[in-house]
Amino acid sequence: MKKFAIIVAGGSGQRMEASIPKQFLLLDNIPILFHTIQAFVALGDIQIILVLPTSQKDYWVELCNKYQFYPSIIICDGGKERFYSVKNGLNLINEPGLVAIHDGVRPLITTTILQQSFQDAAQYGSSVMAIPLKDSIRQVTSNGSSLAVDRTNFRLIQTPQTFVIDEIKSAYDIDFLNFTDDASVMEHSGYPIHLTEGSFQNIKITTKEDLVFAEAIINVNKTISSKSGQ
């Protein structure tokens, strides 16, 4: 089945207290978004659609020229909500196959995870990356108290979230509601959701601390790779 990827990159630098959008901040000396795109490029035989706010397109071109980064991708205009950004990307796909929808600021995604995502989507119709909780959790009640709940019954959801193209396009053929992710849109339309084991390293970079963690993970992985190659 033909593979597509929609990489959504519409963030700002507000919570980072940065002057540029967070997807363009440097990670291991190159922009975060370059890491993300390169992981998909490494898959081979995949059409990548990058969704960017119109106001960021010129800066994207500047960065590509500066770092000599010229992947074969399609640039798509973003929307006022993530929902509309994904919908704009889906509207550019007119062939059957599978599409992985991924956050542009999850740069530590691996080719292995992407391959598994597409395999599971082909088998089950969907593949949503998820990891177990490490900490105990409590549910806050309406009266201000809280209740202990079994964390084994819960998962933290990540991207990529991969679907059969015809089904995800059908699911997105609705008006916007307060959806938190693409799986929520699919579920709203009655499609079942299959969870695929994700990775604790597949973090979403939202705050300054996340950027520090990502740098640390990259450095550790480099050390491990170097030792294994000796």
Please give a structural write-up.
With 230 residues, the chain is an alpha/beta fold. The protein has a single domain (3-128, 157-228), classed as Alpha-Beta Complex (Spore Coat Polysaccharide Biosynthesis Protein SpsA, Chain A), CATH 3.90.550. It contains 7 helices and 11 strands. The protein is globular and about 55 Å long. The termini are far apart.
Question: Concise description?
Answer:
The chain has 230 residues and is an alpha/beta fold. The protein has a single domain (3-128, 157-228), classed as Spore Coat Polysaccharide Biosynthesis Protein SpsA, Chain A (Alpha-Beta Complex), CATH 3.90.550.10. The chain has helices spanning 32-41, 57-67, 82-90, 111-124, 165-171, 182-188, 208-228; strands at 3-8, 26-27, 30-31, 46-52, 73-77, 98-103, 126-132, 137-140, 146-149, 155-164, 195-197.
Taken together, the total number of domains comes to 1
Strand coverage percent: 15-25%
Helix/strand class = alpha/beta
What is the share of helical residues? Answer: 25-40%
> Could you give me the name of the CATH homologous superfamily?
Spore Coat Polysaccharide Biosynthesis Protein SpsA, Chain A
Q: What is the H/E string?
A: EEEHEHEHEHEEEEHHEH
What is the CATH domain class?
Alpha Beta
Total beta-strand segments: 11
Could you list the spans in which at least 5 consecutive residues all have pLDDT below 50? Answer: none
Rounded mean pLDDT is: 94
Name the quaternary structure: single chain
